[in-house]
Amino acid sequence: MAGFAKSIVIVLLISTIFLITTNFIFFFPWYMTLAYETYNLSTLAAQHNYIDEEEALMIIENLNQKPFFRENPLSLSDIEGQFDAGVLQRGEQFSVTINARYPIRMDMGFFQIERDWPVSFTVETTCLYFDKNLDPV
Fold first, then answer.
1. Which among 25, 42, 23, 49 is positioned nearest to 123, based on CA atoms?
2. Does residue 137 register a pLDDT over 70?
């Protein structure tokens, strides 16, 4: 009887390790997608010296169409950065951050875990546009 109980415990332990490993294998492409889209948004924001809402919505729609982000879709409030136009000049820096939630799901029939892990990616960007209205001369 003790051998049977040990075998059940070992099977449950191996199943749990397999499910955790599978969740983290899917984490890396999810995170790289988040990093890539944050970089794209920071590149677009550097051209204007602020984050344009239309471009941010385009990035959000692009992310929400991907299978990784369908479970926890993003909104405009998940993006942090400089949204005000006419504040920064060429050479100044600001951060662009996209906050997301990675879904961790494990279902072993009798035992179920559902958690959303908050993750963010930040890129420092330098303003490229010279605004003549902000020139002190």
1. 42
2. no
